[in-house]
Q: What sequence folds into this?
């Protein structure tokens, strides 16, 4: 591990450090729409824990998902003392199963994605049986719609605000697209509000 601006990162990492500047988006773009409740939130991928740490200041409990062992080691170092963060060494999907890591940039662990395998479990958000989820925030390199399909029960019961990364080239890995994700969300009674983070992240709110 190495330390950069007070946070732990894998020693070979040169990509994730830039994400620290985006943490201001939580207060500026997300929190105004998560009213009046800020009970539990779901956050994936957990990366080195900076997003979970930031969210923990505003939510009673943060459920964060990160199966990459190198990132998890840093995650645990960066979130020491944050009792309201729960870390899961698994990936999210539409069904329960198993996965493995794939990546094409060994210097940027934020660019890895999940394929079928046996390195770690894949679980659904619904398997958590949450009744107090007020935000789902997903940045999982194209598997966003897969994870949302595994959260239909939670979405129907809790009606959380949803933030998803929507990079077309990543969504294509899973046989989907931005337009298909939009169509699915509208079918689930969600309304698009805005994009931020250079247009890569989208915020959706329930219509009822």
A:
């Amino acid at each position: 591990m190495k330390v950069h601006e007070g946070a732990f990162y894998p020693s070979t990492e040169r990509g994730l450090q830039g994400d620290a500047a985006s943490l201001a988006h939580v207060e500026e773009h997300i929190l105004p729409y998560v009213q009046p409740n800020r009970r539990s939130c779901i956050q994936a991928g957990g990366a080195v824990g900076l997003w979970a740490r930031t969210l923990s200041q505003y939510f009673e409990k943060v459920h964060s998902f990160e199966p990459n062992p190198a990132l998890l080691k840093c995650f645990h170092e960066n979130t020491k003392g944050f009792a309201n963060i729960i870390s899961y060494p698994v990936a999210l999907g539409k069904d329960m199963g198993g996965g493995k890591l794939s990546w094409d940039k060994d210097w940027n662990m934020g660019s890895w994605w999940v394929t079928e395998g046996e390195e770690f479990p894949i679980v659904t958000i619904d398997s958590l049986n949450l009744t107090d989820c007020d935000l789902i925030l997903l940045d999982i390199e194209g598997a966003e719609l897969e994870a949302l399909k595994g959260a239909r029960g939670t979405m129907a019961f809790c009606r959380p605000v949803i933030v998803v990364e929507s990079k077309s080239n990543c969504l294509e890995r899973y046989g989907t697209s931005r337009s298909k994700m939009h169509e699915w969300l509208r079918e689930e009674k969600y309304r698009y509000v805005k994009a931020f983070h250079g247009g890569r992240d989208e915020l959706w709110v329930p219509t009822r």
Summary: The radius of gyration is 16 Å. The domain at 2-206 is CATH 3.40.50.150 (Rossmann fold). The chain has one domain: 2-206. The chain has a mean pLDDT of 92.
